[in-house]
Amino acid sequence: MTPIAPKRDAIDPVTDFSIRADSGELPRVSAWLRNTGPARGMPAEPLWRLDLCLTEALANVIDHGGAAAASSRIDLRLEVRSTGSGGEAAIAVSDAGAAFNPLTAQPKPPASTLAEAEPGGQGITLLRRFADALDYSYSEARNHLTIHVRWNQHEDGP
Fold first, then answer.
1. How far is 142 from 92, CA to CA, in rounded Å?
2. What is the DSSP letter of 24?
């Protein structure tokens, strides 16, 4: 008779996290993502891109979301799935800040010279460059932004 191996619990591909709209929470979010992403099979490079985009999106909510954002929690939901050729991770950000659709907003044009350059204003460009897809909706007085990153099977594992 062959012994039966104990059944290992599968890791749920979806995990949720909530934070206060406070810049002091950003390191906690990055730590949560660095722990939960690799545990669900995310390679380092797409994890880095997702963390970069998420940090930018959260900084915008915290800095520009207004009083409603400041007094409400920000909800995060990470979902990681395998595809036939690799995988995809999507992180949904839900906040009560002022409605802002980064898909229709015009990015700030780059400065022509270093002397003309001003800090800030490149967040939309950053999101569009490092995310593979972005989805946005506004419902129930909340912004819902989903940031997607994808990877191929040949990329390094966690």
1. 12
2. G
Decide if 82 is inside a domain.
Answer: yes
What is the pLDDT averaged over residues 108-133? 86
User: CA 91 → CA 56, 98, 132, 153, distances in Å?
Assistant: 13, 20, 12, 20
Query: Could you give the number of structural domains in the chain?
Result: 1
- Residue 91, amino acid: I
Residue type, 108: K
Continuous segment of H or E residues that includes residue 51: helix 44-64
Give tens-digit pLDDT for 76-112.
Answer: 999 999 988 899 999 999 999 999 999 998 888 888 8
Instruction: Give 9's pLDDT tier (boundaries 50, 70, 90).
Output: low
User: Is 88 part of a structural domain of the chain?
Assistant: yes
Q: Tokens 């709209």 correspond to what residue?
A: 21
Contact 97, 69 (CB under 8 A): yes
Calculate the CA dihedral of residues 88, 93, 98, 102 and round it to 10 degrees.
Answer: -10
Cα–Cα distance measured from residue 82 to residue 146, given in angstroms and rounded to the nearest whole number = 18
Name beta bridge partners: 15. 78
Domain of 19, CATH number, reads 3.30.565.10
Q: In this structure, what token pair is assigned to residue 72?
A: 């409400």
